[in-house]
Amino acid sequence: RAKNNKKAFQIYDPIFDQNAIERLFLTNNLRTAIEQNQLTLFFQPKLSLKTMEISHVEALVRWQHPEKGLIPPDSFISIAEKTGQMDALTRWVTNAAINQYLAWQSNGIHINIAINISAENILDKSYPDYVISLKQQHQLTDCAITLEVTEDAVVDDPEKATEVLNYLNQSGFKLSIDDYGTGYSSLAQLKQLPVQELKIDRSFVQHLLDNENDQIIVKSTIELAHNMGLSVVAEGIEDEATLLFLQSQGCELAQGYFISKPLPAHEFEAWLSQSNYK
Ligand code: C2E
Ligand code: CA
Ligand code: CA
Ligand code: CA
């Protein structure tokens, strides 16, 4: 795998050293962060391009570090993955996301919630059993929770992943393939999986209107996804023209800074109450 080859080419560079210290620092402190509730969730809406309603929201984790401030997930998710901390991290995120979902429900905000999960979370049934128990405990309806899984998580061990995803799907979770197009899977492989949604990676969306290749990829992905009975989400929409193009292609859901950036829960509520979307 190309990802792993990187290690073979490491040359001494003081910059790498600095990164190594930084990583060690983050690794040691991440455990504390999870235990001491230094993590926080931001929420980014998904807009239905059929009804122009905000029907879903994605939970995105941040680390509110006491000295370093708000640390973005790209700086610590890979560390958590490499240091066996994804079980603890995803459980924290899942619990927090479900609590927010319940709080919104009781305030009359009916919105489904999406949670990002990692490869480690579908290697066995430990995390699935946790999220299933929360669903039962809170009597959540089917499809209240979407679980977003990247292609890579599935490619690593397709057989096991298929088994665990089937288990989650049969337990009433909606499954979504995240970052579609950046991994190694093909739609033929995805056909084997019990997924209901495909998220086109933002790298294909960002320059969509200027790039004919991206248009061809996006159009054919939407068409094939629909033929397979999947709904399509486009992420990384930064302008109205791109949104309209995707709408004209039959894409069901849209996400991106043009609609809203990820926001803390109370800012998201304020945004929702004054937005033109319902
Ligand atoms: P993702 O799941 O693909 O999430 C989308 C990322 O794109 C988010 O970055 C979001 O802020 C950003 N984004 C959304 N709209 C736009 C746009 O219009 N333009 C641009 N340039 N960017 C946009 P964020 O929140 O920094 O998250 C980065 C990645 O970290 C996520 O990518 C996801 O892979 C991972 N991540 C975040 N939260 C969690 C989590 O709770 N668990 C796991 N396992 N991974 C997470
Ligand atoms: Ca995602
Ligand atoms: Ca994505
Ligand atoms: Ca991504």
UniProtKB/TrEMBL annotation:
Residues 23-276 form the EAL domain. Keywords: Membrane, Transmembrane, Transmembrane helix. This is EAL domain-containing protein. It comes from Pseudoalteromonas spongiae. The chain holds residues 497 to 774 of 785 of the full protein.
